[in-house]
Design goal:
Bound molecules: ligand BJW
Largest sheet: 6 strands, parallel
Helix content: 25-40%
Number of helices: 11
Number of strands: 9
Amino acid sequence: MNFSQKLRAALSRAQSICVLTGAGVSAESGVPTFRGAEGLWQKFKPEELANFDAFIANPELVWEWYSYRKQVMKNVQPNPAHKALVEIEQLVRDFTLVTQNVDNLHARAGSKNILELHGNIERSYCIECRTFTDDVELSADHKAPRCNTCGGLVRPDVVWFGELLPMDIHQQAVKAAERCDLFLCIGTSAVVYPAAALPLTARERGAYLVEINQENTDLSLRTHETILGKAGEILPQIVHELQSVKERAS
Ligand code: BJW
């Protein structure tokens, strides 16, 4: 692929890169996205599954959904997009990977500086005493899991609609967006806030804003450029380009 002159220039001067990823980055691993024709929200209603009131009303149903997704996520592997982001991290001085994904695939691929805005499906915590646990499974009788310490209801450590994002992680993400000189927004529909504000913050602060997505999104009108295509095909080419410009510069 022939990248634009402007993107090549941005890659060659990039000292600080911030990346925001969404479900599209894991799609090529076999993890379903949320929106769109094949997305999870076509079959499951977010208002019944992805908010705290729904959990309290029917914890078994919500846990069934998360157990199913945990199983899917455990059985897939990082794809070339995850691996390319590991390489980009090694090529620049300051790199922050902000992800909305809860599937842990960035960490499994080997990325280091990851900020998980919406939590991690592999962790759970008790809503009463906030004791954290790993790898909670639904019991054979399909009852929602209970805390070993206090007997309270255990929930997945993910951020549902109407809930605050982990404040320190969100603040670090905002700072990374503010200081970067190149921002890559990859595989997200960019409709869920406050994550969707990060690319705009970066652009306002002078970063070159690039979107990589299979299709145009609401963000596309506000980027410097949108590269249409699969993250797993475009990102390895970005790594190649970054390696070439860094080699030429050294
Ligand atoms: C590919 C590809 C390939 C496919 N290659 N690309 C300001 C304005 C308006 C609303 C709000 C606002 N501030 C807050 C709100 C409310 C709400 C919100 O944003 N609502 C909008 C949807 C209208 N936000 C919140 O409630 C957040 N909390 C909050 O703001 O707290 C403050 C507050 C408190 C109280 C009241 C009000 C405010 C919390 C948001 C939590 C989101 N949680 C979820 C579930 C996580 C747990 C779980 O996984 O079950 O997070 S929802 C779901 O959406 C999930 C995702 O992380 C998130 C984003 O989805 P994503 O990743 O973008 O996926 P898709 O499917 O939408 O898009 C995939 C993209 O990939 C597509 O574009 C494809 O084309 C592309 N693609 N294959 C490249 N191979």
